[in-house]
Amino acid sequence: MAPAIDKTRPRDGVVRHPLWGGESAVWFCLRCDGKITGTQIAQNLWHCPGCGASPLDIFNTAFWCEDGGISLPSAKNDGAERDKPDFKVVDDRPKLDVNEDKIILLMRSALLDDATNISEKLGALQAQISVDDDDVRISLEDDLWPHDKEPIQALTVAAQLGLKVEIESMWSTLPFHWPGLGELTPSTSEYTQLMLDAYAQYGGSPDKKAKE
What pLDDT is stored for residue 22 in this prediction? Predict the structure, then answer.
């Protein structure tokens, strides 16, 4: 038995319409009055190469013309993608933008991981951190962070981010007197009470006025 012929594919230019089955080597577009060869329409997935009209507007006779389409011009592909879905692929995978603010946030968090008491926690919060290309500079308050204590977690995070670390000491205005009190406890509430007691004993009541 001879193999069946697929009449939806070009055969000497003759192709079958995918919707209503008519066969022809010449087709006509109702929308733009273009004349289309069977090969053209098949290769363009049954959309008009001139205006992009769908198969609903493609016919094997130009019944709307008095001369049956003889005078109609050939449809030419102008490169336009009409009546086709307009879409773009959006990559919604999360991307890590490691900018200066995020690096500083991670480094300060790592310093807090290194802190073992309130004094060191305040030192981590008061630290001045700056980023310059592949280098990060950390300035730690000498009265809050022990000068001989290496911030292991901060160094580890910096290495993970591919950054070199420069650590230096600084002296600035402390938020509270007697910074050594913070070395006695890891508890903020306990430190606060120690601080209040010290102010009451040596410096009077703390000034709680709102900052102007």
Answer: 85
Q: For 62-114, write each residue's pLDDT tens digit.
A: 888 888 788 888 887 654 444 454 556 677 788 888 899 999 999 999 999 99
Q: What is the pTM of this model?
A: 0.53
pLDDT at 172: 84
Using a 10 angstrom Cβ sphere, with 0-12 exposed, 13-18 middle and 19 or more buried, the burial of residue 180 is exposed
Residue 196 three-state SS: helix
49 in Cβ contact with 40 (< 8 Å) = yes
- CA-to-CA distance for 115 and 153, rounded, in angstroms? 10
The fold for domain 100-174 equals Alpha-Beta Plaits (3.30.70)
Give the integer Cα–Cα distance in Å for 107 and 101.
10
Q: What angle do CA 141, 147, 153 make, to 5 degrees?
A: 85
Burial environment of residue 94 by CB neighbours within 10 A (0 to 12, 13 to 18, 19 or more)? exposed
The CATH 3.30.70 domain(s) of the chain lie at: 100-174
Show the tokens assigned to 47.
Answer: 């959309």
